[in-house]
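Many introductory courses stop at the sequence. We go one step further.
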Amino acid sequence: MGRRAARRPASARTLYRALDELGAAPTPDPALRPDGPKRGDTALLLGVLLAKTELDAAVRADPAQEPPRGMTELLTGYRSLISSPGDTTRLRLLSLRLVRSAVEATLDDDTDPLLLAAADAALAASGLIDTARLQNSGATPTAIRAAREAAALSLRAAADGITP
């Protein structure tokens, strides 16, 4: 499988076609979208594609199974598009994934205190990754300090959430 297409972001139309093929395309309002998806729909469609991909991955690759079903293939496919460990895009991806995980952990109205602590821990990890990314990219000391302080606040909140 080629990597050429992975180098440029997908358009809204391409994302919609892919989601349609996967049976997960949102139904557009024909009055608002008579010609199909618009450029402004790209982030929404990416979110739907992320959810569809992660839901499918959860079914096909279970790390709790002995041996973990499909994990090797899933990770091999993932790594085929992800660049080197120090790449800033990869670090942003890791950070965004952790933020999504934090949001997912707190979607319920009656949230378990341990899930809240887990969400804070995910935000702390995201902040630390952002700090490393900023340091590696030559950001200002103020930006680096702000990211580090945000991570520390989230880490303290996580620790407070698990203290009996």
